[in-house]
Structure formats: C-alpha cells, structure tokens
Amino acid sequence: MPTYRSASGSSAEDLFIELFSDTFGAEKAGYLYSQYPFSDIYQNSRFADFLIENGGRKVAIEIDDEASHNPKLISQNKFYDDLLKQNSMIYLGWDVYRWAVRQMQQQPETVKDELRVFLGQHPSFREIEDYLPTQRGKSLDGSQLELKEHQKQALATLEEMRCNFETIALLYHATGTGKTVTAVMDAKRFGKRTLFLAHTVELVDQATKTFRKLWPRATVGRYVESMKQGNAFVVCGSIQSVALNLERFKPDDFGYIIVDEAHHASADTYQKVLAYFTPEFTLGLTATPERADDKNILDIFKNTAHKLDIQTAVEIGELVPVRCIRIHTNIDLTKVRFNSVQYNIRDLESKIYVPERNQLIVDTWLQYVKDKRTVIFCASVKHAQEIAGRLHDAGVAAEAVSGEIKASDRREVLARFEKGETKVLCACDLLNEGWDCPATEVLFMARPTMSKVLYTQQLGRGMRLSPGKESLMVFDFVDNASQYNMPYSMHRLFRLKEYKPGALVLGTKQQKTAEQGLYDRGERPDALIDWPVDALDYELVDIFNWQEEAAGMISQMEFVRRVDVQTETIERYVRDGLLVPDLVVPMSEHRTFKYFKEETLQKYAKQYGWTLIDDSNRKDLFLDMVRQMDMSYSYKPVLLKAVLLFADDKGRVKLSDIVTYFREFYEARRAAGLVVEKANSIYAKGGYTDAQAQRNILSNPFKRFEDMQMLHHTKTLGVIQVDESVWKKLTREEKQEIERICDEKLEQYYGRFQAAQTEGDLK
Questions:
Q1: Looking at residue 270, which CATH number applies to its domain?
Q2: Do both 296 and 167 map to the same domain?
Q3: Which of 607, 585, 605, 603 shows the shortest CA–CA distance to 594?
Q4: What angle do CA 515, 519, 524 make, to 5 degrees?
Q5: Domain check: are 28 and 68 in the same one?
Q6: Does 600 share its domain with 625?
Q7: Domain of residue 703, residue span
Q8: Distance of CA 622 to the CA centre of its chain
Q9: Are residues 536 and 426 in the same domain?
Q10: Is the torsion defined by CA of 276, 282, 285, 290 positive or negative?
C-alpha cells in the first residue's frame, strides 16, 4: 500500500488551501475536507488529498509531485497503484482534478484560473457530513429488523401525514442513523411501485441492496449507466439516467418516490424529473437540510416529517452522552500562521512539539484516566510516536498508529486495542480509516485543529454505544490562542460558554436537568466519582469563531461581484476608509480577509449609487446593458457577436477566436470599401498584430462587461466566459435578440459615418 500524508497538513496542502482561499474566499476553504477516506474497487483503504462537494457533486483534488505519473521515474507498482486510485474515484462518481506541487509554487495564477474553470465562478460548496458516527447493527433482514425509536417515530409521522392528505415530506436524520432503512420500510408499508433517486452510482447500489434485503418480495432493479431495469417494482436509479430516459416512463408509473440527498432537489435535473412524475407520495432524505446557495429545501418538500441531528441522536440513546475535561497548557499559538482551516504545520510543530506539553498529556492520563481505553489524537506521526513512547516508559500499554505503517501491522495494532491488550492508542490520521472501537471510553484531543469537520470526525470515533459504557469522556488540551486562530474544542463546537469539569456536554434532557440539580445543591454527580476533578469549579469559555461570524457576511471578493464597480475601485475605497468592513480576519502578519454585512453592502451601494447585482437579476441586467449599449466605437457588438458564434455550452470562448473574428470583421469592411472604424483605431490603421488586437479587446469592449461581472477573463487559459448565472439562463430567443440588437447597433453606428460623409458631399 502507498504511504499517505498526514491529515495535519503538508506544505503542499497548505499552499493549495492558500490558493483556494485567494480564489473563492477564506471562509469557503472550510468546505475542503483534507485526507478524505474512501475504498477503491478492491476495497483497499484510500485517501483523497482533498474532497469538496460542489453543486451536488463530490470533487476530489489530488496534489502530486511531477514524477508521480511518470512510469520512468517511479516504480511500476506505484504508477499502476496511482492509476487504480484515480479510476476508483471516478468509479464512485467523483470529479477528479490534480495539480502539481511545482505548478502551485511557480504558476499560482494558473492554478487559481483553473480552479475557477473547474469549480465555477460562483460555486455552491457545502459541508460533507458523513464523518458523523454510525451504529453497526445486525445485518439487515426485513423479517427480523428491529427498528430504533427514532425510526418508529419517523414512520408514525409519515403515516399520519398521509392520513392528513399530505403528499410530500422531508426526513432529516444525521448520517449513519438509518434514514435509508426508514425510507425503505415506509415504502414497503405503503406498498406502491417505488422509484428511488440518487446522484451517484454508489448511493444507487447501496439503496438497491437495502431494498432487496428489507423487501425481498419486491423485484428491485438498477437504472444506471448501461443497466436499465425499468420494469422492476422498485427502481433504484441515478438522477442523470432517469432524467435522460423520461420518455420510457409514464408519469403515473410510480406511487412512491424517494429522493436521496434531497438538498440537491432544487437542481434543474431533479426539478425536471419531479415535475414529470405524479406519485401519491414523495419523500426527501437528507443529513444536511441547509444549502450553500440559500435555497430553502422546504420550499420543495414542504414539511419535515422527522429530524435527528447528532445532539438529538444522543438524547434518544442512539449515541452515548459526552462529558468534557479541559486541560490548559502553557503553549502559545497566537503567532502560529493559518490558512483559514489549518495551522501552518511548521509553525505548529515548533510550538507543540515540546517536552513539557508531551509530558502533560502523559501525566494527565496517569492522573485522571488510569485503566480506561483511550484514543489520543496526535498532530503527526512523530507526535504519536513520542506520546506512545512516554506512556510505554511509564508502564502503560500504549501504541502509535497511523496510515504510514503497513496495513497488516496497522490491523494488528487495532486488534490489540479492541481486545483491551493495548490501553492507549496514539493516533495520527487513524480517523481517516473510518475505524472506531465502540469500547473506547476516553478521547484526548491533543491535536489543535481549526477544522470543525476534523474535530467532529475525531469525536465520532468514541460515540458509539457499547455494553457498560455510560458516557464518553473527552479531554480538550487547551492551548493559548487568539480569537482568530483558536482551535476547536467541545465547548466551541456546541457553543457552550460555561465549563464545569467533567459535566455533560451532550446528554438527554433528563440527564442534564438532574445533573444541574446536583450542582445547584453543591453536590458531585456520581459519574465523576472516579475522576479527580472539582465538579463545582467553572470557567467562562471564549467561543468566538470567525468562520461562523463570517458565514453570514459578504467577503470583499463577493462585494465586488455584487456591485457594478471595478475591483480596483473597491480596493481603493477600502484602503481610503470609504468602505469599512464589519469583520477583518488576520491570517498572518501581512494577510487579512475582510467581510461586510448585507446591510452594510446595501448602505454603501445606496451611498455611492452602485447597482446591486446577484444571480437573480444578473441576466436581466445583462440584457438591459445590451439593449442600452452605448458606443464610442463598434467594439462591444462585435465582441458579443463573436461570443455568440464561438461559445461552448458553458459560455466559454477562446480569446484567440475572438481576435480572429475581430480581424475578419474589420478586414471584410476594408475589402468592401466601407468605413472600418475611427481613424485612431488600430483596425482602421491596419498593420496590427494579434497581441495588439487582444489588448484592445480586453481594454475596451470587454472591460465594461467584466466590471458588471457579466464576462470573465481566465488569463492563463486565454478564455473569456459569459458568467454562468447569465449563460445558463439565456434562452435561444434571447440570444437571437442580442445578435439582432448588435446588428442594429452596428448599422446605426456606421450609419453616422455615412451621414457625415453625405453631409460633407452636399457642402
């Protein structure tokens, strides 16, 4: 198996995050999932350097050195292994993009341009929440399946909704809590022909297996790629395949439709399919009801039948309660650089890899924990080995484990921990294995992280139910940090301002109420008897989180997109104090990101007379701009005609094709003996180069469209693109109207020359 980098980051990964932040905004980097785990087609554990969900699709991003794909420079096994990894990603239905380390170092602008092309000018990123813990119950058997309480409640609610003549609903359950099983059991009870829709082949295959196990009397068919089993009683299909073959189905073919990952349902493809069929009932499934584009999923699914998030999962007994003890260190992280989601690994190493902090971790275990099975999350392989070594020297059965050791050795280490032979597991990127041991009673969060995803993922490794396990105890090692580079902790994650040592962070309402009653009486909860903490102590916790603060704001980058003003103007206004940001986030000594509230944007737009632009009105503003086109030269309509002629289905045109069109347009007029342009125009003078024509196009007709965010220039690729929110909404008739307007404008423009010439002849 190949060796994978630590999820704590590398210089190459740090650089990519910086370029990503520069391209889309620092707040968007929080959607990047580092070292994302998956299985290849042979079920070997793999990790994508980054995964991000964009517009309903998972996108894998790989960072490589230039030799990694050259069979002459690496071993044949490594070469073919990398191919297998990439092909497996594609098989899962992911988009896969790769960048070389040297390219990022030497051609950062090229990488940023490519990111905009591949992910879009206005991408729709969202959190991936499949890091939440899951319960591995008995193997699925419809005759013997014992539903959990939340599933029974959801089924009862769905039945009640149908009795009240409701025809559509949403099921919101945390990932891994059995929402697909719930949906299948509801479809089975309803008993009508069923269509299950998902956006990846993997999800379709999983659903197919679940239907066949839980509803064995029903014929279950797959409708993906070349497999078109559309006559089955239950059809599990990809949204793409069904949408492309709607004519093969009748609108009333299905009485029940299930939409997996229902937060994608506002996409055009889903809308097309859902508008075609006329089922008696439609059920949407999601673990993430919020959408990055602010479209409300309930506008489609109307009502939430049942909700189960991670806190609720604890409250109903699906996951164990969680307690927390905070251990303060004397480590100073205030000067550690960060790139919105990760600390600079070299800065971090210099601060936390010190004997005093490592010994504090060991002493804490010896003093507080003793014989309880513990996972210590460490910042790197080196860190894990150091902590394990110190514990071993203290007579504790401890081992280090990471993705860098051989798979067979790793399995042996994990097996010893699961048997209880090893008491402490010092883990680096172990969480990426998707591994957990339900018997784990204690977690040490000894790895500072600014990633909500990463912290929650670590937490999930200890939240499974296990016989005799009443709760999970989490130790947060709290290093000194500034407001802006503060690592996550239990209290920051769940926004709890008051800390009591060992108190419940997650628990049932009854547990929390009873415990608070003990505190009010000055008594210690029984659960803390074996823990040497003073449960009556408390402290206030600073839970400020700049990413949460910025989430509802507009970055300076977005500010430029929202007004009809040049980037340079906004930068100058900010520099001169004419635009004052509501939030300024210092990333390093010389690097800041600025954010504005929506009302601040509107205030400044009104104050300075700027037109507000968003995706809802961008097309209309573009059409208005074309209809009211002012012309000091003929260039604007010529540019638009070139775009309409050469644009691909995404609205992209090679700049070289536009230059060719300009040359042919003006030379044709010259050959016909017509006025070419004003005397000072390069096209009237003749003898110009393609480079001169390109500069002319970008400086004159293009610039106004760019300022209005209607056209974009991808410099390093030599491409001009119509904004996607404009191009995808333009109808054929509207494109024809634009061409007609351009011809009329050109006729009027050149008519003025003719009129002036006629007037001169008359004189």
A1: 3.40.50.300
A2: yes
A3: 585
A4: 80
A5: yes
A6: no
A7: 618-762
A8: 30
A9: yes
A10: positive
How many domains does the chain contain in total?
A: 5
**326-340, 435-449, 613-627, 689-703: which range is least confident on average?**
326-340
Q: Please indicate, yes or no, if residue 133 is contained in any of the structural domains.
A: no
Same-domain pairing of 100 and 171: no
Domain boundary among 94, 126, 158: 126
Q: Residue 697: count other Cβ atoms within 10 Å of its Cβ.
A: 22
Helix axis angle, 345-352 to 11-24, nearest 10°: 130
Q: Which helix (H) or strand (E) holds 594?
A: strand 591-596
The 3-state secondary structure of 700-728 reads CHHHHHHHCCCEEEEHHHCEEEECHHHHC
192 and 53 assigned to the same domain: no
Q: Report the chain's mean pLDDT, rounded to a whole number.
A: 83
For 72, residues 6+ apart whose C-beta sits below 8 A from its C-beta are none
3-class SS of residue 37: strand
Distances (CA, A) of 636 to 642, 671, 688, 727, 749: 10, 22, 19, 17, 11
Domain presence at residue 646: yes
In tens, the pLDDT along 741-754 reads 999 999 999 998 87
Q: Which helix (H) or strand (E) holds 505?
A: strand 504-506
Distances (CA, A) of 274 to 172, 204, 252, 292, 303: 19, 17, 12, 21, 17
Is pLDDT of 175 > 80? no
Residues 337 and 471 in one domain: yes
Q: Dihedral, CA atoms, 261, 266, 269, 275, nearest 10 degrees?
A: 110
Is the backbone of residue 323 left (phi > 0), alpha (psi -120 to 50) or beta?
A: beta
Residue 143 has pLDDT above 80, yes or no: no
Work out the number of other CB atoms within 10 angstroms of the CB of residue 595: 25
Q: Who contacts 398 (Cβ-Cβ below 8 Å, separation ≥6)?
A: 387, 388, 391, 392, 422, 423, 424, 425, 426
Residues 94 and 184 both lie in one domain: no
Strands 281-286 and 256-259: parallel
What does the longest C-alpha to C-alpha distance in the chain come to?
A: 110
Round to whole Å and give the CA distance between 351 and 234.
Answer: 58
Nearest 5°: CA angle at 337, between 335 and 343? 115
CA–CA distance, 405 with 382 (Å, rounded to integer): 12
How many CB atoms sit inside 10 A of residue 72's CB? 6
Q: How confident is the model at residue 265 (pLDDT cuts 50, 70, 90)?
A: low
Tell me the three state secondary structure of residue 695: helix
